Amino acid sequence: MEKINRIFLIVLDSVGIGGASDAKNFGDDNPNTLKTIAASKNFHTPNLAQLGLFNIDGINFYGQEKNPLGSFARVVEASAGKDTTIGHWEIAGIISERPLPTYPDGFPPEVVSELEKNFGRKILCNKPYSGTQVIHDFGQAHEATGDLIVYTSADSVLQIAAHEKIVPVDELYNFCKIARKIMQGVHGVGRIIARPFIGKFPNYERTPRRHDFSLEPPAETILDALNKKNLATIGVGKIQDIFAGQGISRSLGVNENNSDGMNKTLRLMDENFCGLCFVNLVDFDMKFGHRRDVDGYAQAMTIFDVELGKFLSKMRPDDLLMITADHGCDPAAKGTDHTRENVPLIIYDKKVRAGVNLGTRKTFADIAATVAEIFNVDFKTAGKSFFKA
Questions:
Q1: Which of 58, 255, 268, 351 can bridge 261 by disulfide, Cβ–Cβ 3.0-4.6 Å?
Q2: What is the pTM of this model?
Q3: pLDDT digits (tens, 9 = 90+) for 161-173
């Protein structure tokens, strides 16, 4: 077997494949993101089907491939959560026994007081809110007073929105850094997010200068282990932000959209490197899952499938592709929150055996364990490698 030199790990953010056994403990009633979007007229994913997506255990709502080209598995989240940060940490080898804090009633008075004291500005909103609606509802007051719009969501986040003419972007980033230092320990939210916007009421628009300030991973990840061996660890999309830069040797930056992320990845395929390229495609979650847009989500999957075809045609004999997800976000579910779901795993290269059903894996961390085995690096994780399964 030819040695594998490059692994491309693509996370389809929120593409779950059915409720986890403990989904009700997380407030979810039988969610299934993939089943929901597969019923849309906009859904067409022949490349994913050919690799074995619909051959995965538990997927019985779409035609199976007779001779799938890839190997495949259903993967269960072992961590106590259903958010982006914990999901990616587990993919990278860390199982989190406690969920990150969320604030369905807003941040408590002691947190607000500490933030305002360190900001030197008052806070507006302090509730879970839609990111577009919050600037509509509080933007005028923000412009009049200079107070910062601070809000949260169902995720473990603290978000700060500010008009770029009132608070320049660099200053907004500095407020986020201040908040990151405060939000530690019991209030250690997964991400502090800068949300700059422009325009005039009622036509405010968020800009692409969003930036995430993440909680540092609590332990070493597979990225750190690869880095120690001088192997490449390249992040595409918000990977750099999710891991607070820890273990990342190079970042290609936040994507403008999924297609931008795939184009960056396709260009990277022309480079010579040895190691891991870790890709996050967030549109599925951010633009369609949370907004409960079934047809938009389905269309995004269709577009990704076309780009996947381009990726497959450029693969070298020493490349390995893994496709997975970090949680669910069923666009047919109630509310706007993520959904606690199992996720898909597809593995493909041009040399390894095809059509192997790897069954149901007990943790996302099996991915990290497999990467460690392929590159022969020392890495401790509860995950089990499936490379020779």
A1: 255
A2: 0.92
A3: 999 999 999 999 9
